[in-house]
Design goal:
This protein is an all-alpha fold and about 300 residues long. Helix 2 packs antiparallel against helix 10, helix 6 packs across helix 8 and helix 7 packs antiparallel against helix 13.
Length: about 300
């Protein structure tokens, strides 16, 4: 019997925990940015997280052919672009909940990018979901007074890069096990963005005990623990099933931001975020229904 059949609820519980930890990472990062330049923060965060995972990944890394290691490192360059856009968007953002929903557009854009670059045919649900998501983003732009804010544009760029990254990962490094691949990419991203920060950023550090605490929480919880749990959980279920639960990250982020920062949403923001989340559900409806049937057996009758 497969792990998927043995422990479906354990996989779902772990993935749900991953979404909570990932959403917490938005709070940790925003707090740490008060005393650290964005690229230096994310670069050192990923570098340390990768080094913490390295002992667990080292046996598998030693068995990898050099060409696969090189591919993993090269894909890390694309990951660097995605995470750089994300952290810069976060640094400009005054509303974490809105930014999280815009960033989640990357899930919806995966089949679109696959169509444009690789000729794959997206499911019909993608073409239904896309205009719904675009209308939701338009409402968020209207909330800013008929203009796209810098944080919104940067999050859209991050979503596009993440969609491209997912497509490249499934094609270029599909035979590399998840843990060594994650470790390679974290170390690559950390090294690239830390070096870039030293060249382009001149903001002084203000490392108070609280800033260091937020930084370490980002490294240990939002990076190392999050990726470790996500890898473990994804090994117990299917990628499409995991993607449905991972969509909840934006919802948790909005709730945590409302609790921690006292954020509230205007009617346009609420409608825009709701439409984006609806689009994600439409795009993954087949798998959403399977998740619902797993947890609500009575719905099958």
């Amino acid at each position: 019997m497969s792990a998927l059949k043995q422990a479906p609820w354990q996989a779902d519980a772990l993935l749900l925990l991953v979404t909570v930890v990932a959403a917490s990472g938005w709070i940790f990062s925003k707090e740490a940015l008060a005393g650290m330049p964005p690229l230096l923060f994310i670069g050192t965060r990923f570098l340390l997280a990768g080094l913490l995972l390295l002992p667990f990944a080292w046996p598998a890394l030693q068995r990898l052919p050099p060409r696969r290691v090189r591919r993993g490192v090269l894909v890390g360059f694309l990951f660097s672009a995605a995470i750089a856009f994300w952290i810069l968007g976060l640094s400009y953002s005054d509303h974490l909940g809105e930014s999280a929903f815009i960033n989640s557009l990357g899930i919806l854009l995966v089949p679109v990018v696959a169509r444009l670059l690789f000729g794959d045919r997206p499911p019909r649900s993608t073409w239904v979901a896309l205009p719904v998501a675009l209308f939701g983003f338009a409402l968020l732009s209207l909330n800013a007074g008929f203009r796209i804010e810098a944080s919104q544009l940067l999050m859209v760029c991050a979503a596009l890069c993440f969609a491209l990254l997912i497509n490249v990962n499934t094609r270029v490094v599909r035979n590399v096990p998840a843990l060594p691949l994650t470790t390679l990419q974290l170390i690559s991203v950390g090294s690239i963005l830390t070096c870039l920060s030293l060249v382009v950023e001149h903001q002084p550090l203000a490392l108070s005990p609280s800033i260091v605490s937020w930084f370490m929480a980002s490294v240990l919880l939002a990076s190392s623990l999050r990726f470790f749990l996500q890898i473990k959980a994804q090994g117990m279920t299917t990628p499409s099933h995991a993607a449905v639960i991972l969509m909840l990250e934006a919802v948790w982020t909005a709730l945590f931001a409302a609790w921690w920062f006292g954020e509230t949403m205007t009617l346009l923001q609420l409608l825009g975020c709701s439409l984006i989340f609806t689009a994600l559900l439409i795009n993954r409806w087949y798998w959403v229904r399977k998740v619902m049937l797993r947890w609500l057996p009575s719905a099958q009758r």
